[in-house]
Fold this sequence. Notes:
The complex is a heterotrimer.
Chain A: H1 7-22, H2 28-53, E1 62-72, E2 75-83, H3 85-108, H4 115-134, H5 138-156, H6 163-194, H7 199-208, E3 215-216, E4 219-220, H8 221-236, H9 245-248, H10 254-263, H11 268-275, H12 277-281, H13 284-305, H14 311-331, H15 335-362, H16 375-378, H17 380-394, H18 399-412, H19 421-450, H20 458-463, H21 469-484, H22 492-495, H23 502-511, H24 519-544, H25 550-558, H26 560-567, H27 572-620, H28 628-647, E5 656-660, E6 663-667, E7 680-684, E8 693-695, E9 699-703, E10 708-718, E11 723-733
Antiparallel strand pairs in A: 1-2, 3-4, 5-6, 6-9, 7-8, 7-10, 10-11
Helix pairs in contact in A: 1-2, 1-4, 2-3, 2-4, 3-4, 3-10, 3-15, 3-21, 4-5, 5-6, 5-10, 6-8, 8-11, 8-13, 10-15, 13-14, 13-19, 14-15, 14-18, 14-19, 15-17, 15-18, 15-21, 17-19, 17-21, 18-19, 18-24, 19-24
Chain B: H1 3-23, H2 27-52, H3 56-86
Chain C: H1 7-29, H2 33-53, H3 57-81, H4 94-116, H5 133-142, H6 145-166, H7 170-190
Helix pairs in contact in C: 1-2, 2-3
Amino acid sequence: xxxxxxxxxxxxxxxxxxxxLFGRKWSRDTVVAVAAGAIAGSCLVAFDAFFTALPLAExxxxxxxxGTWISAGPLKIDLAFRLDGLSGLLCLIITFIGFLIHIYSxxxxxxxPDYPRFFAYLxxxxxxxxxxxxxxxxxxxxxxxxxxxxxxxxxxxxxxTETANADAGKKAFIVNRIGDxxxxxxxxxxxxxxxxxxxxxxxxxASTGSALMxxxxxxxxxxxxxxxxxxxxxxxxxxxxxYIWLPDAMAGPTPVSALIHAATMVTAGVYMxxxxxxxxxxxxxxxxxxxxxxxLTALFAAVIGFAQNDFKKVLAYSTVSQLGFMFVGVGTGNFxxxxxxxxxxxxxxxxxxxxxxxxxxxxxxxxxxxxxxGLRKKLPWTHAVFFVCWLAxxxxxxxxxxxxxxxxxxxxxxxxxxxxxxxxxxxxxVLSLAALGTAFYMSRLYFLVFTGETRASDxxxxxxHESPGSMVGPLVVLAIGAALAGFTGLPGGLFEHPTWNLxxxxxxxxxxxxxxxxxxxxxxxxxxxxxxxxxxxxVAWVFYGGGYREPSRKFAAAVPKLVKLVxxxxxxxxxYQFLFVRPIKRIGNFIYFFxxxxxxxxxxxxxxxxxxxxxxxxxxxxQGSGDxxxxxxxxxxxxxxxxxxxxxxxxxxxLKVSVTGRTVEVDARRGGKPxxxxxxxxxxxDGDGKPEVEGASSTARHDYASPGSYTVHVRIKDPRWGTSNxxxxxxxxx
Amino acid sequence: MPTTYYLILSFFxxxxxxxxxxxxxxxxxxxxxxxxxxxxxxLALIAFARELGDLKGHVLAFLIIALAAAEAAVGLxxxxxxxxxxQTVNLDEITLMKR
Amino acid sequence: MPEGVSGGxxxxxxxxxxxxxxxxxxxxxxxNPVTAVMSLVGxxxxxxxxxxxxxxxxxxxxxxxxxxxxxxVLFIFVVMILNREEVTPLSFRPMRVIGVLAGFYLFIKxxxxxxxxxxxxxxxxxxxxxxxxxxxxxLLFRDFLYPFEAIxxxxxxxxxxxxxxxxSHQKEVAANRAADYRKQIHELSSHDYPGAPEAPAPxxxx
Lengths: 734, 99, 206
């Protein structure tokens, strides 16, 4: 069934184009109206498609083919969009949260002179993200993939006049390039072996299996394709080892962090794995790797989050950690679980980031939680929203509770990993620990920011105020989402009411049926996770309730080196600097000094110049007038002389004469070698001007009637060039 | 028409170009003479390509056209530079090669 | 009339040949450079038509685009910059006349060699794809890839060279002069004598 899906990404693109062209001249209200209007229109179309058209279009979803993009031999790629339960859900998240963040930004960015540019980029981002999600084939998806990367770069470095921001943008871009290379290789592999880049066609090929189960490099095609695609996902979704760019990306404006670096773009990797689930299901080993990376990232980033002192940095590591959860979800074949967490996370993390923006707005732009505290009363709305989102991310009652449990329970009881089922179980335990960590660092954040006394200077304290309505409004909507979004995915198995799981209704036609989890596991995980979360909150209260308490000081004093190590993010950046950046720089320097400066500049440029100079000096000695045309004339003359000489049959030749009695034999063959040219010879033995022998043969014989002295004349003609030579020789006949 | 005729024409074109190059005083016309020579060569290549049924002649002619473009660009740039320095493009007055 | 040649073909050939030769001679004999360039365009168009009769459709188009289009425009521009009519366009210095005569000798030789040896007869009818863009493109990007890349580098170098050669150096000369002046002032001011002028700030810092 077709639907005008192109409108969904087109509207934000148009908004971006209009704002880039004319935004500078317009008032702020007009700019916001255009930007938010574009995304609102896109949102309405998406809602219409999802709720009105999609139910009628089962099971293949909605299609829209704009035209042929690439057609080269057997490769044919359409610029086509597809909306099914999976991409539709993502579309709703992007357009709805995108809309809220546009509204929020109108307040947050109020005093920024580059207002139009910001909204143009934001619209461009939404359009690209929608292309990524809706793309019907991997290359179309890749347009969006690169487009969001570009927008991410542009928005991280939005305040580019500060070098640190520009550097953070570059870091994000370069680290993402490494991942994109993996994505491309995965794409090439799939094209080579599945014969298509269209996602539904790849899914069909994968369901028959054989084409992707061919052996390749010691494993199967499916394994390598899945692994390389996952490399792309680790870049975009900030997983080990490519997560390092995301914390730095917080240099961008806070709405950007909320939209791009929490709710939407960074989840693209999870979405991509879910989209390509057919390929991943063929390769349990690849799934196990995804699970392991996800679980490690979840725990590792949570631990780093313990000691960060910047509001947004804590949230950034939290995002990395939560993305790890999602990857465990999709990695254990529990695709619904992963997407479910993506969906709830989008609400509560966007809410948390926007709260961060609101708090920083109030704190005169500072994000240092060491000087905050006691903001509960001063920022009541922000506090309420943060409170809801905090409970949600900790996994208590609100949306994070169900989605996180669904992932952990799925990991415990997965059957998709085959021989690697233990990886899933281990990941389940690791995630439980990570959930404990999450509860701890989020509660630390909450207690340090909102409880106790404000530790800031009086001047900052004096300025603390609640944010304007344009910022609070979206916050409240997100809080409602964070509270309730989880209940669209009630685990059907637990309540024996499959219809309660609304989310599953949409996702199962695309991703297959919901994972079977025994009721015991489900309940056990729920109870265990809640206890873990309460434990985390409790520990955080002991350490940080109402400000830095005695135990936290004692702890920091007891193991200062450990705290410093965690604060320095385990010095992974420095490790990469040492392992990759510095060697590459050294190679670059070497190439610059050796190849460029010495080999090219000195040897390859210098030596020919010296030679030309030398020959020039030498040849000047024999030069005449210095008149170029004269040289050319001589050149032409030389050519003529060469042709003249070269076309003569035998200019300086001689005859071989042998006399036997009165018989004389003459050989006119040049140099004694057989000539390659068709020549004509005429022999005149008696000098009367009439040739006795004629023909193509170079030898002739003649019997003289009487002895005496004769002259033999031989005329050699080259009929092709019209040249001739005469040779003669005296003969004594006895 | 037989290839012979095309070849003779191409030689003649080359001869005209050569005469232009050798006899004209204006460097600009000399460059045009060079273009005529190159075109003469091209005509021969294309005529032979058809004679032999071999497209390599076309490829060579293609490369020569690109070469001629490069030659014209640099040659004319040199002329402009020369004119700027000496206010003339009369080759009788430009005898820089001996110095 | 050789065998196997229709009268129409011959008429077209002779008309085009006459046009090409006429315009070529016109090109090298005109005093006014604009007339010369226009005659050159005429030659190019005649040759393009001739390429078409030789089944070289792609090159015919290219001839019009690159020669009659781009190169001619380049010539016109330069003519505009240095347009001056000459009093005596031709210089019959002895050496040059000898050179032309040598060229004529070569022409006679080559004429003879193709004319006398009529082994080069009427050609075979070329295949359907002969001279099409796809056939040439195929050859160009497979067998002739390296020459193709080389020629593209040549073009790049020619562009850079053209810019470097024809660019005006006046600004650099002025900048050098200004730098020298600043240096002098600086040296003078570093000597401590009464009334030393203050060193002006280096350019770019306003």
